[in-house]
Design a protein that fits this description.
heterotrimer, A mainly alpha, B alpha+beta, C alpha+beta, A: mainly alpha, Arp2/3 complex 21 kDa subunit ARPC3, 7 helices, about 75% helix, globular, B: alpha+beta, mini-chromosome maintenance (MCM) complex, domain 2, four-stranded antiparallel beta sheet, three-stranded antiparallel beta sheet, 2 helices, 8 strands, about 40% strand, elongated
């Protein structure tokens, strides 16, 4: 019988309630998938220009639960999300998964190394830029044997910059709201 | 950890500058252009930019092979060789293209970024 | 710290598992049949030695065909036929006999717009010399008598040219044929992806693709008037592509352009169009049809393309120094006009 006491951020970080941890991971993944699917309905001039709202759940997972949880959320989100959207096992899926994992890892490493130098905002920005750069590199070296594809870099960087800011700002607000909720 | 830090602000500025910078870098790279390399008996004897107008004369087995680089194009304008296929090839400008004088063992190559692309030129 | 190492390791693992077959490009250039030739093979893992050997075999085949078909040497099969015009019946290879028969088929389909007996006229114009000249009207009248594919008699492996002075010129079909044969050799040796370029006559072979249904190779079409620049591009899979243009072998005298694509009916360069690019199932067809359609002109040429199976084309003409073009139905939406 589980004791349904109120959700406290404190509890997760301390690892005191492993089941809660699991359910939160599931919850955040679900949120990520929902955001991912919703975002696919927003019309964009070019198919690969995304704001990346689903990353909000990844960032929150990182800040609240830690690296392994975040990686789990990212993988779950990309895999299940692609099943919903119908891109499972397609090149887009491979790109999303690789870039997602790498950018998540980079965010985790930066957070571990720099302690509190960056907030969720800075980390989101790092994550979004890494995501876009990794995607471009993979496309360049694996799919399209043509350097002309690099012409897209400035535009992609701009989208990543804006997307990272949006995701970061939302994440920061959410995190402080969650923190306040414990009080 | 939950408030916007100084690190964030510095990062925002840096990333913004890089993004803006990448727009300029892209334009700069585009006008860099390709290289012209002339080989005699498979050894490079001239290397220069396609954007630099020049006249180069190579001495091959049959005689002179005169190469001209002008306005982003390159051509063999004169050659002492029996068939003059090289001269009749005309002007070339795309990276990957070559003009070749077999008797004189001279190859004019245009080198650029695209190394592995699948492409053919007709006309 | 352990966590960071763990992350980095999984990153490396992830990247290495993402590797896909990168196609490498092996290419060699040379000259053949009075023009440049390049053989390119695309393969994920073939050694340089093997690639060299494959390219060697392709070049040998092209040179072999050159030695059979060239009319610049009296010792080639074609040369011998020409030397013995009006005199002797010559015995020829099955290969040449079949090529002649295919040429006649193109002649019949086009009512003589394509004609390999146009040799005497082409020789009189002498486009490759440093001083090409315009044949006089009386000379032209006499030369026209010698033109007519029906005067080439082919029975089995025997050929006879009916009149002295007749000449066979395979310039409108031999290069495409050579490209097809070179690709055949490469295919027989296991090559799955290749592009052979003989003076702008292209043969694209990409396993599992077909013509305009696929987009593996980018084909650039040269600009007929701006040297070094391009008119447009299209993407194809396995097919043959060829272009006939009035700028390829020509000279300008008194402001008039004289080029090498002769209208067999008049003996003079065909005037209606400036450049014709044909995409067909093989390079030989593309080569022959690009000449054929050029001679037919804008209207009849496009008609011919439309009624030919597996053939698409681009016709470019000039009106008061401005270029206009028309695409066959199958090329609509697939040709990208450059802003060169």
């Amino acid at each position: 019988m589980h004791n349904l006491s109120p959700l406290r951020v404190y509890d997760f970080v301390e690892g005191r309630r492993p089941t809660r941890r699991l359910t939160t991971i599931a919850f955040l993944s679900a949120v990520g998938i929902a955001l991912f699917v919703l975002e696919s309905y927003i019309p964009m001039p070019l198919p690969f220009l995304k704001i990346g709202l689903a990353n909000i759940s990844s960032v929150i997972a990182l800040m609240m639960l830690g690296t392994t949880s975040m990686l789990t959320v990212v993988v779950l989100r990309v895999v299940v999300g692609s099943l919903f959207v119908g891109t499972f096992m397609s090149p887009a899926f491979v790109l999303a998964l690789s870039a997602g994992v790498v950018s998540a890892a980079v965010m985790a490493i930066v957070k571990a190394i720099s302690k509190n130098f960056f907030s969720a905002l800075g980390l989101s920005l790092i994550g979004s830029i890494t995501h876009v750069v990794v995607q471009l590199l993979i496309v360049r070296f694996v799919y399209v044997q043509n350097a002309a594809i690099l012409q897209l870099l400035p535009l992609l960087l701009l989208t990543a910059f804006i997307g990272g800011l949006i995701v970061g700002l939302i994440s920061v607000r959410l995190l402080s709201a969650l923190k306040q909720a414990r009080i | 950890m939950k408030m916007i830090t100084l690190g964030d602000k510095i990062l925002i500025v840096v990333v913004f500058l890089c993004t803006v910078g990448s727009f300029f870098a892209k334009n700069l790279l585009a006008s860099q252009g390709s290289l012209v390399i002339i080989e005699l008996k498979e050894m490079p004897v001239y290397k220069g930019k396609l954007t630099e107008d020049r006249k180069v004369t190579i001495k091959g087995a049959y005689g002179d092979v005169r190469v001209q680089i002008r306005g982003g194009n390159v051509a063999v304008v004169h050659a002492d060789c029996p068939n003059k296929v090289c001269v009749r090839t005309g002007w070339r400008s795309l990276s990957g293209e070559t003009i070749i004088c077999v008797p004189n063992q001279v190859i004019v190559r245009i080198l650029g970024e695209e190394r592995n692309e699948v492409r053919g030129i007709t006309g | 710290m352990n966590r960071c190492i763990g992350i980095t390791l999984s990153l490396i693992l992830f990247f290495s598992s993402c590797s896909r077959n990168q196609l490498h490009r092996y290419s060699r250039e040379s000259t053949a049949m009075e023009t440049y030739v390049s053989v390119t093979i695309y393969d994920a893992d073939v050694s340089q030695e093997r690639a060299d050997a494959l390219v060697d075999s392709a070049f040998s085949e092209i040179h072999r065909i050159e030695n059979v078909m060239t009319d610049y040497a009296d010792t080639s099969e074609v040369g011998l036929i020409n030397v013995n015009a009006g005199k002797d019946t010559m015995e020829i290879s099955q290969e040449l006999a079949e090529l002649l028969r295919k040429s006649f088929s193109f002649s019949e389909q086009s009512n003589g717009a394509f004609d390999v007996s146009v040799g005497p006229i082409v020789k009189a114009w002498d486009f490759l010399s440093s001083e090409p000249k315009i044949p006089s009207k009386s000379k032209m009248r006499m030369l026209r008598q010698l033109v007519g594919y029906k005067n080439i008699v082919v029975e089995g492996n025997k050929v006879f040219l009916n009149a002295k002075g007749m000449r066979i010129d395979l310039g409108g079909i031999a290069k495409g044929y050579a490209v097809d044969k070179a690709i055949e050799i490469l295919k027989r040796n296991g090559v799955k992806n290749t592009i052979v370029d003989l003076g702008g006559n292209l043969g694209v072979w990409w396993d599992g693709t077909h013509s305009l249904d696929s987009a593996v190779a980018e084909i650039l079409v040269r600009h007929p008037r701006k040297e070094g620049k391009f008119f447009g591009s299209l993407n194809v899979g396995t097919c043959g592509v060829s272009t006939s243009g009035d700028y390829q072998r020509c000279f300008i005298k008194d402001g008039v352009r004289y080029h090498h694509i002769i209208d067999p009916a008049t003996g003079y360069p065909a005037k209606d169009v400036v450049s014709v690019t044909i995409i067909a199932d093989d390079a030989m067809t593309a080569d022959a049809l690009s000449t054929l359609v050029f001679v037919l002109g804008r209207e009849k040429g496009m008609e011919f393309i439309k009624k030919s199976k597996g053939v698409e084309g681009l016709i470019v003409w000039e009106e008061e120094d401005k270029l206009s073009y028309e695409l066959s139905p199958g090329l609509q939406g697939k040709f990208k006009r450059s802003d060169d």
